[in-house]
Design brief:
The chain has 369 residues and is α/β, with parallel strands linked by helices. It folds into two domains: 1-102 and 266-369, Isopropylmalate Dehydrogenase (3-Layer(aba) Sandwich), CATH 3.40.718.10; 130-259, Isopropylmalate Dehydrogenase. The protein has twelve helices and 14 strands. β1 (3-11), α1 and β2 (36-41) form a beta-alpha-beta unit. The structure holds nicotinamide-adenine-dinucleotide.
Amino acid sequence: MPTHKLLLLPGDGIGPEVMAEVERLVSWLNARGGVTFNVETDLVGGCAYDAHGQAISDETMKRALDADAVMLGAVGGPKWDGVAYDVRPEAGLLRLRKDMALFANLRPAICYPALADASSLKREIVDGLDLMIVRELTGGVYFGEPKEIVTLENGQKRAVDTQIYTTGEIERIATVAFELARKRNNKVASSEKRNVMRSGVLWHDTVAALHKREYSDVELTHILADNCAMQLVRAPKQFDVIVTDNLFGDMLSDEAAMLTGSLGMLPSASLGAADASGKRKALYEPVHGSAPDIAGQGIANPIAMLASFAMALRYSFDLGREADMVEQAIADVLDKGLRTGDIMQEGMTQVATTGMGEAIIAAMEAQAA
Ligand code: NAD
């Protein structure tokens, strides 16, 4: 029976509350047989700082590097607002991303039919939406040097950020996008600004060459990033996979996310390079933060966390059928009218975090029966 090493880092605020629902689901899968998850749990963020003065310890980092996949809840909160910059809760997350060399950020935007009315767009535009933004996460203008503010001789200041991409960096993120597309609807839109940026020209040409060489079975289009932003609100269902750089990906993924309603619904994955056996380092986390305003009340929406686990099933453990079951179960409970407070609508039934988690497992049991 395949055995997978899973590291859970619940973190702060509502992190442990939503992670408890992942634990419930993992126990269910383990009891069902066919696959075994060996689960370890550790500290990251403010709770790690309280325990040993660091946002993540070397020991925890070692466990993360050794795991087949890492699930992260959320980090931070007002309690740690005053701590030194290099040990603040977010530093734990940044170290995980850096040491695991996670260069590909996957942000799906799925609009469940039952929640289509909660979108700021018209139902017919978002109902059934299922797209994936693949954002380059470790290069580009956020990291390029020089990166500075200098004082000029005339007393003015000048700020510089530098957009840098190499063909290797572009190829590896485009490869992730093409591979994903093959498992979805086989379409990639590559987004850049080749009309005004040299890095955009290289991005375009590199993606086009890779496509011709290795992925000509996938439908590829090139779209300027400003047009992509527009098309996302005009007709988002035209897209399957969008691949783009760090800066444009930051904007476009948030824009796409909001097409679907609440923060409590949005999962993400960050992947590293494939090793010789094809395995990638991987971190899965909800897009939302630690929600200190509702922490400790047991009312947080666990769907983003559970959908992040579904991504782990699909991308780290090759358990696509089980991933489909989780996603279908989420759609089923929403269809039945169950809602946590953040997505509550008139005439629906409000449930707490555990109520939602239990209902999702019951829906999976119903599918399995
Ligand atoms: P947040 O995402 O924590 O919360 C924003 C709003 O959305 C709040 O009203 C919250 O109650 C609500 N919300 C978020 N997730 C929810 C869920 N699952 N169910 C129901 N409601 C939910 O963002 P924020 O308030 O800006 O940040 C709070 C803390 O989280 C800060 O310390 C911030 O630095 C941190 N943060 C961490 C991460 C991360 O760990 N990746 C991401 C963003 C923010």
